[in-house]
């Protein structure tokens, strides 16, 4: 028993793997193939009813949203990577934790256009809209990061494992060089040893 992370390399479950490596606690990883046969198998659907990743199993507790996994692990371990209720940055910590998913939604739509939708059904209009929206999310980050190294002024937190992954995903779809603060941020967070342990080689 203990903690098991169900993980697909390069997917949003990198967020959870990265945080686990930052926390330095004992856990197991069940690496799943990125196939419908594996993710929609009867065994896995009994754990995650939508057949997606990440999914965290902690003894009899199952959590399958990456933001919720982040908060759960920080609360469980009492990690300083969380900003708790009553602390000055608590609301900001929560905001950026969930903003990471706003960013990733546009990336997920672009993955659908690139990988899963048959070529004859793909839409240049949808692709263009999602790329612009993704760029808008990066513009917000770029402004926010003008006076700080990490998402919170006090320093690195679990939020950076979520936002950092979304930034790294974004650069798979659009050039990010014009957002200089975002690029510098990406280099800082992805260079961390725990991040290097968590990303596949083609995303480091």
- Report the CATH C-level class of the largest domain: Mainly Alpha
Mean residue pLDDT: 94
| Computed structural class | alpha+beta
Q: Give the amount of beta strand, in percent.
A: 5-15%
Say how many strands there are. Answer: 4
Strand order of the largest sheet: 2-1-3-4
Overall shape: globular
- Helix count from the secondary structure assignment: 9
CA(first)-CA(last) distance: 31 Å
Major sheet: 4 strands, mixed
Instruction: Indicate the CATH architecture of the largest domain.
Output: Up-down Bundle
Oligomeric status of the shown chains? single chain
Number of domains: 2
Low-confidence stretches: none
- Helical content class: 40-55%
Radius of gyration: 17 Å
The secondary-structure element order is: EHEHHEEHHHHHH
CATH topology of the largest domain: Glutathione S-transferase Yfyf (Class Pi), Chain A, domain 2
Please characterize this protein's 3D structure:
This protein is α+β, with helices and mostly antiparallel strands and 204 residues long. It folds into two domains: 3-77, Glutaredoxin (3-Layer(aba) Sandwich), CATH 3.40.30; 90-192, Up-down Bundle (Glutathione S-transferase Yfyf (Class Pi), Chain A, domain 2). Helix content is 53%, strand content 8%. The protein has nine helices and four strands. The protein has helices at 13-23, 36-39, 42-45, 66-77, 90-116, 124-144, 159-170, 180-190, 193-198, and strands spanning 3-7, 28-31, 55-58, 61-63. It has a four-stranded mixed sheet with strand order 2-1-3-4. Strand 3 and strand 4 form a beta hairpin. The longest helix is centred in the middle third of the chain and has 27 residues, at 90-116. The radius of gyration is 17 Å and the shape is globular.
């Amino acid at each position: 028993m203990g903690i098991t992370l169900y993980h697909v390399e390069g997917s949003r479950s990198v967020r959870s793997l990265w945080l686990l490596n930052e926390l330095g606690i004992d856990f197991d990883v069940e690496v799943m193939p990125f196939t419908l046969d594996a993710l929609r198998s009867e065994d896995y659907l009994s754990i995650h009813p939508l057949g997606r990743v990440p999914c965290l199993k902690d003894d009899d507790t199952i959590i399958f949203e990456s933001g919720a996994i982040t908060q759960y692990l920080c609360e469980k371990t009492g990690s300083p990577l969380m900003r708790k209720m009553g602390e000055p940055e608590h609301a900001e910590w929560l905001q950026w934790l969930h903003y990471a998913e706003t960013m990733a939604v546009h990336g997920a739509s672009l993955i659908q256009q690139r990988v899963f939708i048959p070529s004859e059904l793909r839409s240049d209009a949808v692709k263009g809209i999602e790329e612009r929206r993704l760029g808008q999310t990066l513009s917000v980050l770029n402004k926010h990061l003008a006076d700080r190294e990490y998402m919170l002024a006090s320093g690195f937190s679990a939020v950076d494992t979520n936002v950092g992954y979304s930034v790294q995903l974004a650069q798979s779809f659009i050039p990010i060089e014009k957002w200089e603060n975002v690029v510098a941020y990406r280099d800082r967070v992805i260079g961390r040893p725990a991040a290097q342990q968590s990303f596949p080689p083609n995303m480091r």
